[in-house]
Amino acid sequence: MQTFDPLSVAHCQGQEFAPSYWAATQSLPTANPAPEASEHFDVAIIGGGFSGLLSAYYLATNYQQKVCVLEANQVGFGASARNAGFALPGSGRLGYPDYAKRWGMAVSRGIYDEFQGGVNRVRSLIAEHNINCDAQPSGYLKVAHNAQAYANLQAAAQFISTNFGTDDSRLLHRDELEAEFMLNQHAHGAIRYENGFGLHPLKLLMGYREMVIQAGVTLFEHSLVSTVKHGLRHQLSVNDQTIRADKLLYTGNAYNNKHSHPLIDNRYLPILSSIFVTRPLNEQELVQSGLQTHQVVMDTRRLKYYYRLLPDNRLLFGGRGAVFAKDQNKAKYLNHLKTALSACFPCLSGINHDYYWHGYIAAALDDMPHVFFEDNVGYILGYCGSGVSFSSQAAYRLAQLAMDDKVPELPLYQRPLPRIPFPQLRRFGQLGYYHLAQVQDKFS
User: What is the pTM for the complete model shown?
Assistant: First the structure.
């Protein structure tokens, strides 16, 4: 079977599930059946991850819509169960000063509130539906990889405090970071944000799955949408059956089919991330590494590393993977991550890993997520690695857009994905950027 790459392979059905720590510690339920007869729905949703399930949930509960979710594999196959489980108020690849420069301070503040709202919404869903997803203590540490990055963190915190009138951050000098959190040899200090936490993403996804079923949503699994005829009523061919829907939503993010719809085709870049999970750290390793926290951690590099202690004291460590899908299992990419880990924590050099896997995220040309609806077709795309939390807010907004309800006047919800120029060269552009970023990360 050809290794899946959304840019070259027609669809992901039949691909193996990721051999992740999450899949090893959470069993999957029996899959729901595929359609056995033609049916009509108010809304059909393609993609059964966080975005698709929550869009369906809000459409069914807030607007009493008859909704189906079509998942090509089984819920848990895609990015929603391959990520690191970081629920963060991420802002895409842009900072809030960038948003302010483009659209003004009011828009920047609005975007800040939406991303914070995503984390808060996930917390609320977990509490309201009693989802046991191993939620860890609150706190998100952004670690400066050099002195300039530390100065940038300080400026970013000051910008938010001055212009948004909020202060949920604490600047940590290197000695404070070492005394309270970790002995990271590459850290020049950090900033700690209160609103962020780690969780078990597959357990969260299974909680969402149960929510939508209880809400009356029809969930079809192993249901590949092979063709779509768009019109006043969309016609979807699924396993030799026809699903008709008045409205259609694409929520597969980086796992969308190669040719989905002109609204999203050639408008995003799927990027591989790779993650490994070590054996449980012993007491001596915890002391030598200074790891005193289970809070989530990310550094300030352009090609970021991210990590956290899991509840069983295994260390999860991730970063960018191969550019080309065919290379993803080459030893050099795992070795690259382990070299980065040992540079931060020399006492963990050569540590064995028990799990190693890959998954795609999606980035947009303008470095921010988009939630868009037009002519009875909508989508969510471009989380850029922040989908665990923002998917909840994005799904809520997509449901509002689909029902012609009012949403905040922000570019996140008003602007379609920009087209990528020369899309056939995307991978080579990505390769060039990686080489440039590696150089920049060493000197700035």
Answer: 0.96
Residues 6 or more apart whose Cβ sits within 8 Å of residue 306: 84, 86, 296, 297, 298, 299, 317, 318, 319
Query: How deeply is 163 buried, as exposed, middle or buried, from its count of CB atoms within 10 A (0-12, 13-18, 19+)?
Result: middle
- Which residues on adjacent β-strands are paired with residue 220? 70
Residues in the chain: 444
| C-beta of residue 31 within 8 angstroms of C-beta of residue 74 | yes
**Which runs of E-coded beta strand occur in 281-352?**
296-299, 305-309, 314-320
DSSP, res 242: E
**pLDDT for position 444:** 67
Q: From CA 258, how far away is CA 79, in angstroms rounded? A: 16
Running DSSP on this structure, what letter comes out for residue 248? E
Give dist(CA 117, CA 362) in Å, integer.
21
Nearest CA among 145, 144, 139 for reference residue 87: 139
The C-alpha atoms of residue 345 and residue 63 are separated, in whole angstroms, by 51
* CA–CA distance, 387 with 49 (Å, rounded to integer): 10
pLDDT tens per residue across span 207-257? 999 999 999 999 999 999 999 998 889 999 999 999 999 999 999 999 998
CA–CA gap between residue 140 and residue 386 (Å, rounded) = 13
Core vs surface per residue 238-252: b (16+ CB within 10 A) or e: bbeeebebbbbbbbb
Domains, the chain, ranges and CATH?
21-83+202-269+365-431 (3.50.50.60), 137-196+270-363 (3.30.9.10)
**Which stretches in the chain have pLDDT values below 70?**
1, 91-92, 443-444
pLDDT of residue 437: 83
Q: Tell me: the pLDDT tens digits for 367-396? A: 999 999 999 999 999 998 889 999 999 999
* Predicted local distance difference test score (pLDDT) of residue 435: 86
> Are 352 and 285 a contacting pair, CB within 8 Å?
no
**Which runs of consecutive H residues, i.e. helices, occur in 242-318?**
283-289
Q: DSSP per residue over 139-177, as a string?
A: -EEEE-SSHHHHHHHHHHHHHHHHHHS---EEEE-HHHH
- Cα–Cα distance between 142 and 193 in angstroms, integer? 8
Whole-angstrom distance, CA of residue 387 vs CA of residue 379: 14
pLDDT reported for residue 436: 87
Specify the pLDDT at position 108.
95
Rounded distance between C-alpha atoms, residue 348 and residue 307, angstroms: 13
Angle between helices 105-128 and 147-164 (to 10 degrees): 90
Closest of 205, 261, 219 to residue 387, by C-alpha: 205
> Reduced to 3 states, what is the DSSP secondary structure of residue 250?
strand
